[in-house]
Design a protein that fits this description.
233 residues; alpha/beta; Nucleotidyltransferase, domain 5; 15% strand
């Protein structure tokens, strides 16, 4: 957990959700909604802004071997929505672009096969990994379902793709002061649940910036790396 600072004056953050054709970014200033926009590349999400934290719903940090502890821990916190967390294999698998070869490598080094759905995330994981290692953005990994769980105080019951699920998530954000515009559309390129996820990521980014966030695992449990592999919420 980070050290809490006094006051929230002019805290600018960006929350980002990875979507099928790019990245959805929501910017908060002092915890309030300021902007939502679609970006083709992750490096573009902070353009024209100066965020203290960019919280992104994509795995950041790859292991040399074995599964990431944070994926296993977060899965257990989400109840029946735990299947929204994909276990990410080691770098030796993620770096393989061809699915058949990646699947074979995963069986060899991880002891089990790789789903096509997980492999479809790899290009964005590699993009985020390069950006993280460059230090160009103050990136932190989040999982929106953990953010919403923290808002609600309990695991959510409805999928984010259902009307009930989206209404509940929007109400949770509003209760935290993140009031989204009535029109959430972005020229049809991004689904409503992606925008809600980006807003939840921004909410967690604000908590990180103001020292109120928690993470799984805690940084002390994440090993000696200067940038520990952890999911913040």
């Amino acid at each position: 957990m980070t050290t809490e600072r006094a006051g929230n004056a002019h805290v600018e953050v960006v929350g980002v959700d990875a979507c099928s054709n790019g990245w959805m970014a929501v910017r908060l200033v002092d915890g309030r909604f300021t902007e939502a926009r679609f970006c083709g590349r992750l490096k573009e999400v902070a353009a024209g802004a100066d965020p203290e934290i960019v919280a992104v719903d994509i795995p950041l940090g790859l292991t040399d071997q074995g599964w990431r502890d944070c994926d296993l821990l977060v899965n257990g916190e989400l109840g029946k929505l735990g299947n929204s967390v994909f276990r990410i294999p080691s770098r030796a698998v993620v770096e393989v672009k061809d699915y058949k070869r990646a699947n074979a490598t995963c069986r060899e080094v991880m002891g089990q096969g790789l789903s096509k759905q997980s492999h479809a995330l790899f290009p964005k994981i590699r993009e985020a990994d390069r950006l993280r290692r460059s230090g160009a953005l103050p990136l932190h990994e989040v999982h929106p379902e953990m953010s919403f769980r923290a808002m609600a105080g309990t695991p959510l019951q409805w999928s984010k793709r259902t009307w009930n699920g989206q209404s509940h998530r929007r109400a949770l954000l509003a209760a935290e002061g993140v009031l989204l515009p009535d029109d959430l559309g972005t020229a049809g390129r991004v689904a409503v649940d992606d925008i809600l996820d980006a807003a939840a990521a921004a909410w967690s980014a604000h908590r990180i910036a103001t020292g109120r966030a928690k993470s799984l695992p805690t940084p002390a449990q994440s090993g000696p790396s200067d940038v520990p592999i952890a999911i913040w919420y």
